[in-house]
Amino acid sequence: MQKSFVKRERVLKNVKKKIFDDFLPQYEIKSKDINILLSQLSYQNVPVILEIGFGNGENLFFLAKSYPKQFFLGIEVYKPGIAHLLSLLKICPLDNIKICYNDATHVLEKYTTNLIFDKILILFPDPWPKHRHHKRRLIQESFVEILYKKLKLNGIIHIATDNEDYCTHSQKIFSKNVNFIPESKLYRLIKTKFERRGIKNGNIIFDTLWRKI
Predict the structure, then answer these.
(1) Is 118 a catalytic residue?
(2) Residue 2, pLDDT above cutoff 90
(3) CATH pick for 29-212 out of 3.40.50.1240, 2.40.10.350, 3.40.50.150, 3.40.50.450
(4) Contact partners, residue 38, CB within 8 Å, separation at least 6
(5) Which residue of the set 33, 103, 126, 165 is catalytic?
């Protein structure tokens, strides 16, 4: 099974570890329970947005705060990023957000029903710039097929990167799939940590969106 990450875990310092331990139970949803929650939301016609690899969680937090009638699910494997998101939720609790501490590929393949997400965000994934590492990139034909199954009709996949080669790579992958068409750029409400870093380094930000047909 292709993983959506390569393990590079850092040890949490005391403050972050306490936040992680104290608040994760409040916001975590176990993989085995995701379908129950998503089925309930679908029955209630609540739009569901998934962010894969949400980094430090600022974007996910801001979206959930800005759109209280939508539901936001974030899947992440790195504890420091989860701890940062939990620190934001400690200050401003929200009831329309859940965190799944797991590998996104595994969760999507094994624990989510089809036709469930209105939008999937993949913002600044690891570009793996060396050619010999391209096979590690998240956006591959097999992964796009998984995303297709999980998206609702007319659902949107939004990919952002500051790596032009990764942008070209993802465009080639999606262009091969007749089930997606390009979509106009959508305005992202805030700049993520990795976007700010890219801009600081003088990089161009590439946003590409694909609509399921």
Answers:
(1) no
(2) no
(3) 3.40.50.150
(4) 48, 73, 112, 113, 116
(5) 126
